[in-house]
Amino acid sequence: MFGIGAGEFITLLVLGFILVGPDRLPHLATDAAKLVKRLRGIAHAATAELRENLGPGFEDLQVTDLHPKKFIKKTIGNSLEELSDEINTGLSLDKKKAQLDPDLL
């Protein structure tokens, strides 16, 4: 979890217990959980608003898709694949046309 091992996690718990105190620690944990829930709601609302503003074709948008390389691949990748297939089939047809007839030799 977040690159934290068991020993480090226990150390953080003990340190939190010492600094905050046993009486305020449950309230602090509750407040932290509420903050995480609130941040998740904000992130979800922002993602939904982004999907809405991008328009049709982006209903299945994920936050990880917003990386520039992935975004370009997703938006124009399919048309590039189709163009590549057309070029490859055209090249294979040209290779077949360029063969010599052995009877002419």
Report on the structure:
This protein has about 100 residues and is mainly alpha-helical. The chain is about 70% helix and about 0% strand. The protein has 3 helices and no strands. The longest helix is centred in the middle third of the chain and has 30 residues. The radius of gyration is 29 Å and the shape is elongated. The termini are far apart. The mean pLDDT is about 75.
Please tag this protein with its features.
105 residues, 71% helix, mainly alpha, elongated
What's a quick, concise take on this entry?
Helices cover 71% and strands 0% of the residues.
Structural class: mainly alpha
Question: How many helices in DSSP terms?
Answer: 3
State the end-to-end distance: 73 Å
Overall pLDDT: 77
Taken in chain order, the helices and strands follow as HHH
**What is the percent of helical residues?**
over 70%
Sum up the overall morphology in one term: elongated
Radius of gyration: 29 Å
List the helices and strands and how they pair.
Elements: H1 6-20, H2 25-54, H3 68-97
